[in-house]
Amino acid sequence: MRWLILLIVIIIAVYFIWENMVFVKSRYDIKIPYLNSNLRGLKICHISDLHLPHHRVNLKHLSQEITKEKPDLIVITGDIFSSGIDRDNQNNIRYLGQSLNEVAPIYAVSGNNDLPYMQGDKWRKTLETHGIHVLMDEAASISIKGEEIVLIGLEETQEMSDYEVVPETRNFLENIKMKKRHEKKTKILLAHHPEFFEQYVNNSDIDVDLVLSGHTHGGQVRLPLMGGIYARGQGFNPYYDYGLYHSKNNPAVRMIINRGLATTSFTFRVFNKMEVGFITLY
Question: Which Pfam families does the UniProt entry name for this protein (predicted)?
Fold first, then answer.
């Protein structure tokens, strides 16, 4: 009996170690009202929360798996760094930028863990030098398949990072300047924090069609029938932890939360593999 118990413990331990070293591919088919017919089938690769150099995935394997999918666009929704922009992290970004730019254009926004390194322009320059376009309270028009879509990137602020009381009337998109020709284009918002989803949708004159987010790590520990246990900024039993959500006031607007490719200060994920998302618009 002791040997059986020991064997079970070893199997469980090996499983959890393995689970923390692999990522899964999640797939979403998202209907966008009035999407231009040329853009139907457009595929977006969504990654988040790399926390370099504390990422848990092999970057070469990550690049190879993304390349196999042939996405039209790659987005990174924040928390790219966790311990400064040293030589190792610059090499990591160089590899990702060079390898993935051969596949599709890459756009990124900042997250709370990036904030300490964003004084001055080193954070932005590091990414852009290696082919990763940065959006900091900015909108960019991207030509894909002969048509344009608009990517909007929300910049991380100390207010968001500190989880100060944020009024429900807060317009997070107030600093983003939109061009007249953007108004009737499909708009995708990249925003690290999912907990402000309804404010992104309801408190702005900018009509977004889809929000892509990260930050929660899927709740870090997930339990059957319960979901994520904890998410920073939401506390225990978070409502926004992972997956697809519809806006309560505007159900046509969806948000997808990515589980990320690293861990928090609690170093293990439980029943919660890392993730790369692939989103197809139709």
Answer: Metallophos (PF00149)
